[in-house]
Design brief:
There is one protein chain. The chain has one helix and twelve strands; from the N terminus they run ββββββββββββα. The protein is mostly beta strands and about 150 residues long. The strands form four sheets. It has a four-stranded mixed β-sheet with strand order 1-2-10-7, with no helix packed on it. A three-stranded antiparallel β-sheet has the order 3-9-8, with no helix packed on it. The radius of gyration is 16 Å and the shape is globular. The chain starts with 9 loop residues before the first strand and ends with a helix. The N terminus is likely disordered.
Length: about 150
């Protein structure tokens, strides 16, 4: 697979679960894929796309990284970098967890709390069945877990 840079480093395209973000070049493990920019909003105004900044505010991301989908086996993570030279706010970056090929969908683990868990259809070999933090999987209500097992 070719790894030449073709202009933009990512693109938005349709997936089985809606829009997703795809690599337009190869990224080695540990590489910064891009910066997540957006609008800072009050916590109550955030959406399912937003990233928590603190207990009172969230970053509502702009495209393309607004469309990062969840996977139980993600190839990316996000991290706040405090040493931003152009802002007094920390900067949120998408970082490759492993080598990523051009054309591959970029995914992160949403790590939602059990109270927000929804069924997962990421298709990963180790799919938890829920979009939820590994630490809170046992806190997903038993009746909800039974329903998802019966639907498979």
């Amino acid at each position: 697979m070719s790894c030449v840079h073709r202009g933009e480093s990512v693109r938005i395209a349709e997936t089985l679960v809606g829009k997703g973000v795809f690599a337009e070049r190869c990224y080695p493990s540990g590489a910064i894929v891009g910066e997540i920019t957006g609008e800072v909003v009050r916590y109550t105004d955030g959406s399912n796309y937003s990233f928590e900044i603190d207990e009172h505010s969230q970053l509502e991301p702009f495209p393309p990284f607004r469309y990062l989908n969840h996977s139980c086996e993600p190839n990316c993570e996000f991290d706040w970098i405090e040493e931003a030279t152009y802002s007094d706010q920390p900067v949120l970056y998408v970082i490759a967890l492993r080598d990523i090929q051009s054309g591959e969908e970029l995914t992160i683990d949403y790590n939602w709390p059990a109270s927000f868990a929804i069924p997962c259809c990421c298709g990963a070999g180790t799919c938890r069945g829920w979009i939820v933090s590994c630490d809170e999987l046992d806190d997903v209500p038993a009746n909800a877990q039974r329903l998802i097992r019966e639907s498979r």
